[in-house]
Automatic annotation (TrEMBL), chain A:
Main location: membrane
Cell compartment(s), UniProt: Cell membrane
Taxonomic superkingdom: Bacteria
Entry's transmembrane regions: 12-30, 36-56, 68-88
One Pfam match: MNHE
InterPro entries: Cation_antiport_E
Keyword Cell membrane: yes
Membrane topology value: Multi-pass membrane protein
Family label: Belongs to the CPA3 antiporters (TC 2.A.63) subunit E family.
Keywords, alphabetical: Cell membrane, Membrane, Transmembrane, Transmembrane helix
Name of the protein in question: Na+/H+ antiporter subunit E
Automatic annotation (TrEMBL), chain B:
Keyword Lipid biosynthesis: no
Family: Belongs to the CPA3 antiporters (TC 2.A.63) subunit G family.
Protein known as: Cation antiporter subunit
Transmembrane segments: 6-26, 64-86
UniProt keyword list: Membrane, Transmembrane, Transmembrane helix
NCBIfam families linked: CPA3_mnhG_phaG (TIGR01300), PRK12674.1-2 (NF009314)
Leader sequence residues: none
Pfam families with a match to the protein in the record: PhaG_MnhG_YufB
């Protein structure tokens, strides 16, 4: 996980290609002019808005990635139905809880991906992030007691495991599968 | 009306219903943190369903690529927006302790 010049360049190349892809999607049709225009615009964006380097130490694994996406869509659906149901339950006040969950892989990328995915799945909202410690404080909706909050903590760690299995490095995968819960 | 159009209509109506639920939840939930839940989940799913319905209806690449982009940016920006609002609300003391069974963040700050 050293931020040496070579990985830095590789990350920049990924960013340029990603932005060029968005550019082509915006135009809707692929042409060499669009590709060239996209690359130029992406290069200018990177020059004008330099960002701190994102360390991507892992690699994409298609099968765990597909599993993560499937779980994510299922969770998003369940969450939406749950909130829609709560919305029409008149005379019932949903209680919440704020719990702190220490992630086992505290890299910026994992923290961001986990936080993004969490916000969209059942009953969770990120209230505060401790980047140095790798801790997410999560507001959980419709929690009645402490035991339910604990169960949610396990769900968060399971979600993190799925993300790391999809994009993490072998070392990170080992850390999440050995069950070293903070 | 072909079968695909029927499916497209079903997706669009389902998406609209989820968005309606999100709106109702937004007005009915007791505090700002709960409301942010309503602003992210059913609303995002509702939009995705509407986009899916539109994609099935249009069936040409120029429109579908735009729809894909709308969906992708919605998925990435909605959580960030909800987090920012929730964070500011919590820091300004707008959370309602009577609605929280556990508040570990308050325990840390104590």
């Amino acid at each position: 996980m050293t931020g040496d010049a070579r990985t830095r360049r590789a990350n920049r190349a990924v960013a340029v290609l990603g932005m060029a892809l968005v550019w082509i999607l915006l135009w809707g049709t692929f042409s060499w002019a669009n590709l060239l225009g996209g690359l130029v615009v992406a290069g200018i964006v990177l020059l004008v808005f330099p960002l701190p380097p994102v360390v991507f130490a892992g690699r994409l694994r298609p099968v765990p990635l597909a599993r993560f996406v499937a779980w994510f869509l299922r969770d998003l659906f369940v969450a939406s139905v749950q909130i829609a149901w709560l919305a029409f339950r008149f005379g019932y006040t949903p209680h919440g809880a704020i719990i702190g969950v220490g992630l086992r892989v505290g890299t910026d990328l994992n923290l961001t991906l986990t936080a993004e995915a969490l916000s969209l799945v059942p009953g969770s909202l990120i209230v505060e992030v401790d980047r140095a410690e790798g801790v997410l404080w999560i507001h959980v909706l419709d929690v009645r007691d402490r035991a339910e909050a604990e169960r949610f903590r396990q769900d968060v760690l399971a979600l993190e495991s799925r993300i790391v299995a999809a994009v993490g490095s072998p070392d990170e995968v080992r850390r999440t599968t050995e069950g070293g819960v903070l | 009306m072909s079968a695909i159009d029927a499916v497209a209509s079903a997706f669009i109506v389902a998406g609209a219903l989820f968005s309606l639920a999100a709106g109702v939840a937004l007005t009915r939930f007791p505090d700002i943190l709960s409301r942010m839940h309503a602003a992210t989940k059913p609303q995002v799913l509702g939009l995705l369903l509407v986009l899916l319905g539109c994609a099935l209806r249009f069936r040409n690449t120029v429109d579908i690529t735009t729809l894909v982009l709308i969906g992708a940016f919605q998925l990435t920006t909605a959580p960030v927006a909800a987090h920012m609002v929730g964070r500011v609300a919590y820091r300004s003391g707008l959370q309602r302790p009577d609605l929280l069974v556990v508040d570990e963040l308050a325990d840390r700050d104590r």
